[in-house]
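Notebook B, p. 112. Complex prediction, attempt 2.
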Amino acid sequence: MIAAILVLSALAGVSGLLLGFAAIRFKVEGDPIVDKIDAILPQTQCGQCGYPGCRPYAEAIAAGEADINQCPPGGENGVVALADLLGRDPKPLNAEHGAVKPKMLAVIDEQNCIGCTLCIQACPVDAILGAAKHMHTVIASECTGCELCVAPCPVDCIDMIPIAQTITTWKWTYPSVTAKAAA
Amino acid sequence: MRFKIVTSPHIAQNVSVGQVMRRVLYAMVPGIAALTWFFGWGILINLVIATVVALLAETVMLAVRGKPLALHLSDFSAVVTAGLLAVALPPLAPWWLTTLGILFAIVVAKHLYGGLGYNPFNPAMVGYVVLLTSFPREMSAWLIPHGLDQPHALTLLETLQAIFHSELPARFTLDALTGATPLDALRTQIGLGLTVTEIRNSPVFGMVAGQGWEWATLSFLAGGLWLVQTRTADWRIPAGMLSGLAVIATVFYLIDPQHYAPPWFHLWSGAAIFGAFFIATDPVTASATPHGRLIYGVGIGVLVYIIRGFGGYPDGVAFSVLLMNIAAPTIDLYTQPRVFGARRG
Amino acid sequence: MSRLYPFHGGLKTVRHKTESNQQPIQRAALPRRLMVPLRQHIGAMAKPVVASGDQVLKGQMIGQADGYISAAIHAPTSGRVATVETRPVPHPSGLPDLCVVIDSDGEERWVERQPVDYRALHPSELRNILRNAGVVGLGGAAFPSAVKLNLSGHRERLETLILNGAECEPWITCDDRLMREQAAGIVAGLHVMVHLLEPREVLIGIEDDKPEAIAAMIEACAGTGYEVRPAPTRYPSGSVKQLVKLLTGKETPVEGLPIDVGVQCFNVATAYTVHRAVDHGEPVISRTVTVTGHVRQPGNFQALLGTPFAELVEQAGGYQEGVERLIMGGPMMGFALHSDEVPLTKAANCILAASAEELAPTQPVMPCIRCGACVDVCPANLLPQQLYWHARAKEFDKAQDYHLFSCIECGCCSTVCPSHIPLVQYYRYAKNEIWAQEKEKQKAELARQRHQARLERLEREKQEREAKLRQKAPARAARAESEGGGKLDIETAVARAKPHPDAANPAATRQQDA
């Protein structure tokens, strides 16, 4: 009786030590979940999700305050990636936060710009160049297409134009389209 | 001038799934002819029943699944399944047995798993195993191979009667017509303590293996070699299976030649040759890598011997194929070829 | 004969060489208008250095190499620049690209040509001459040759220099004719390459279905030590990595280049343009192109770059009835064109007008039956059916696990597939998606950094303002003392100075800490 208790206790003790050792020795220093979520978000910093930027949204998701379907620029693929990361079921995008649009680029009509700098202050990635009373322009390669500059413009001289497909951005399409056409 | 846009390559070899399946059917012709010669009209009647039922089941399932009928019926895959199963059934198997096996093969093993290309298990063998485990008595009633020219062979009409009404002509009893297959005989008599030499003196056996059976096997081998030669079947699978079977049979034969049948007997008996060239080579359910196919074949060969020698059934091709079907994805994972330019080793 | 090292897989394809290789190369007529794309090579597009209205001479530079991996573009004939704008170019997308449009004056007046003695030049000077002459690989990939002729950074010395005259694609015969007619020029260009690369051996690989070309090259190589190696006719022996393996036994590492195993490989036509550039001072303004298939008089043409395909077809006797598809390149790897109103480029080795007779019939796609025919023919030793499953399921990381990027898109697998699955298109789609995702990731990372920088800047500015306010505070306090009620003003001012309402948001503050 006593022997059995002792043996079992000893076994339990050894297993506990082993487990404890393993927990320390093989501890996974993973990226904090916020960083992982942030890495999936498209970084447009557009605020359509209701948070002032991608990182605050990532923090809100991690804290369980926001759902994973509030990011239209990320599209369905983004939702799927988030669902995959967080082990949740993917769901359709929440229409309240806007619809999926093709990638856009802000363009300032330089004839009409009065140099008010309001758009510069609105741009979350400092992609607008200019000074007070001087014409502004958008650095195309830095623009995320967030549209935040459009509303503040007092003379309505900023247009969002879809990014045109060129030879360098063109992609082969998924074959089912042609396969069906062929059948 | 504007042109049609289609992706490269713009030329193709004249091959199709239907062509592959038709070749398998052609290759079965000599074997079926030999079987018919030795076992009578039943073989052909089974084939007809199986084909009709298979095509009907295929049509219904395709319609239910909303697939284009003409396209998929013309791939002949259902006919191949029917052929493989029908050949494996006893010549006087009642019509419902054939029907049940085919229905299970086409409906459950093939279409419920996603249809052509998606089934993890060989449909014909699933059907066969279901019948073998559910109706062992009907499934073991093989005829004694007499030859169509023998006076006591069943006529076409008598065979139809037997298959559809389970009525034998008055001059026969079922026991007089049927007998143990060579593998079955070997199995039971070794169980009774006889030696292989003694058993082989019984009239069931011919020159190498079973009387009559050995000619059917030879015919299937001819068809199988043609399949390999036309590259319809990958040589690695039959080569692997037959060498696996031969090696393990040789080992046991050398240990105790009176207790274990010689390797040539094993290679030439039962469904070994037929299975190696026609069943194991079904690409959908086999391993897909070159090395994997060798391993897959060897696995089947070894399992066949184990089941024959130590299992509960006289032959084990169907079980072995299904077991290796399960293993195929794992084999594939670990036998990926070395990609061009990848480091060796 | 020296030993060959066969590669895995490959195919015996139809040949269709005799349609076009029986007649000598013809000089194509001078077109009235040429459209010269500024992107005719891999790498950065050439920068236009002419504007509409400019008079240009034949061989004058109209586009400047922009960056290291780039090549110059030249006026193919003398005339007037009509415009510099986007025009249709030969590309699978059918999208337009920037072209210099030149109206020829018919006089063919050359710029001053300066042949050089390459032995007297420093290698970097020589490479610069080739770069400015617009020399790129003419086998189809159009990679700037000057880059490949520079060993620095790779290794001290080259083991093997290979000249690729395999021409393994069906229908194409431009290299065959060029070797027969200009073997001496090709070898002269080879001398320049040898001078730059100093290889231990020089091998010339030619498929054995071109006995005349082999004979001509052997004769031209007499006494040079360059070895002509006839290779069995087996597609895709002209693919760089496969040819290197075939002739040297060396396998180019996955995601590596032949130079990694000490081999460099050039097309025979490239060697010829090197010779023209160095020994005659002529930049690349024309190339040999095969016009074949369903045209009345198939043949090879020495045509100016920028010549519309339609005019070349016209000179080959025009289309026969029933042409369905116009292919640039061969039938295995070439791409279908949307229109024949596109100009000849450096990469265009063949124009194949195809009717139902030449093409594979369009057949319905069946499920994969895992027959393994694709595995048997894959020259990269891949598992095409496995790649297909993953590409189809858009599981791009798994496709990469199965070495998607080792696929050379040779088309062997699609050709033998009994289920008629457009395998190569699945691979191209998957590769394009992976590249696009990679680009988007980079763009997102850039945006993240810029957003971060902006937040830091705003924070810094806020603190600077607060510091200023604090400095002024005593003075203001004194003033407030005298005027009274100033305390509230200060608070509102500070609140207003906050750059962004979100700065008060705890989340945003945390972000700045991160």
